[in-house]
Amino acid sequence: MSAAQGPLVVGVDTSTQSTKALVVDAATGEVVASGQAPHTVSSGAGRESDPRQWWDALCEALHQCGDAAHEAAAVSVGGQQHGLVTLDAQGVPVRPALLWNDVRSARQARRLVEELGGPKTWAERTGSVPGASFTITKWAWLAENEPEAIRATAAVRLPHDYLTERLTGLGTTDRGDASGTGWWASGTEAYDEEILRHVGLDPALLPRVVRSGEVVGTVRDSGDLPFSKGTLVAPGTGDNAAAALGLGLRPGTAVLSLGTSGTVYAVSTRRPTDPSGTVAGFADARGDWLPLACTLNCTLAVDRVATLLGIDREAVEPGTSVTLLPYLDGERTPDLPHASGLLHGLRHDTTPGQLLQAAYDGAVHSLLGALDLVLDADADRSAPLLLIGGGARGTAWQQTVRRLSGRPVQVPEAKELVALGAAAQAAGVLTGEDPAAVARRWDTARGPVLEAVERDEAALARIAGVLSDAAPLLERRPDQR
């Protein structure tokens, strides 16, 4: 480990598949140690994880960091959004957490939107029109399907809240993650008690929403952790808000994040209210807003297609007229929770590489369709797109985004931007700085810019046409097939 110039901080990313921890020099942004441990996610109709695995993975990741973690002065947790964590009176999970990509609550989402005034009312009130990913719909699903779990629940948390509470012993959350629940009103920046009453959720079960820059507590004594006594704990936030912090994002710059899910977002000073439901009007972790569109199917779906074809994920070939909509887990953008993958235009001479390229095209098309909606009207649409996430360094992903967007693409050299954003937040509680300014001082967005190429209008039109024509099939519920 090199000698640090400033205090050390820890940033955590608890994602769908694993928990990562970075020990970072708060003065320079240098990563001096790191660790990672996996989670288990259920397969089948639902997507669930035992929150205790997240804690075990955090402990393992921190121990991999060695002495550096013990020297850290502050820690912050960024985590997967929307997951419903139900705890009993002893703080033990009542059941596995329902994750963001569990779409069994699609029916409850439609019902809640109808019962409480329709899409426009929801958008104006909470900033978003809740779909099956949102926490409130999962609570409604649980109430209908497992009422005994509801009766046993003494606390409701999000994934990052759960780990922060295990660190401090206190139930807290932040505005960024709270804005993805469906029961936090973006207009008043408070829990909406009418909505909570409607779904039978006592606000006393929810965590306190803390202010940006607030120290939420200190790490309590625990033999599981390498932290020293008194280590400060920052508020933490959702993964997308953490990545925005990690990039030091300013208003008007668009981000495409390629991970298990795909997201496109930008920081805005204007509170978003999109009644179409395409854009979620999330808060960021500072005081601004983070209009965001999310797809459920991104890198994992494309990798699955490559596996089925028996070829490497980079083995794409041009010249395809095939359309592949890789909606393997249903889809959120467009709002097709019951959809499955769809292949159209297959010919005798279609190659495996062309099929794989079609999967990339289908995944990127969904993200680019929302790009203009997340940007303010005065944003520069010729500026580079920031490409981040696990897929960002893949040549096939980079070239597909360039070809279908017609815009230059910048790939930051910094890795693990969610954990870096959490680390910047931890540094901010030590120094009093804006965490986004900390990340800009660390120069986290630095990276090569790939020049723009001509936009492939023919491919975009073909995919849009197939999507439109296939809408009745894609919207069909499983019990109608």
TrEMBL record:
PROSITE patterns: FGGY_KINASES_1, FGGY_KINASES_2. One of its GO terms (molecular function) is D-xylulokinase activity. It comes from the Bacteria. Its EC number is 2.7.1.17. Residues 9-246 form the Carbohydrate kinase FGGY N-terminal domain. The active site is at D239 (proton acceptor). SUPFAM superfamilies: Actin-like ATPase domain (SSF53067). Keywords: ATP-binding, Carbohydrate metabolism, Kinase, Nucleotide-binding, Transferase, Xylose metabolism. Belongs to the FGGY kinase family. Catalyzes the phosphorylation of D-xylulose to D-xylulose 5-phosphate. This is Xylulose kinase. It comes from Streptomyces xiangluensis.
